[in-house]
Design brief:
The longest helix has 26 residues. By secondary structure, this protein is mostly helical. 62% of the residues lie in helices and 0% in strands. It has one domain.
Amino acid sequence: MTETNLAAGPGNERQWAMFCHLSALSGFLIPFGNIIGPLIVWQMKKQEFPLVDEHGKASLNFQISGLIYIAICFVTIVLIPLIVVIALAILVLTIIAAVKVANGVPFKYPLTFRFIK
């Protein structure tokens, strides 16, 4: 993620960038909603707002990485208790990202693979 000056972007652009992150929370209610939500927002607004393009990719990469970490824990059976920790980390980091973007502060997710560039 580049060091974009988020404060310079119009409020509407930051709001849609925030929705890229918050839409991932639908994954706690709908299977794969954490991927589908940001994907829909990103596809709808990426041409209109460069900030949405940047944060849509960041959100998708983080959510895909989180699914990979959870799948590894599930497959290795011994690490199943870590699934709760990973799910909580995903929840907290997603909310932090949304708040920071809404306030015009840059944010980069930790431990994220960059599948979408």
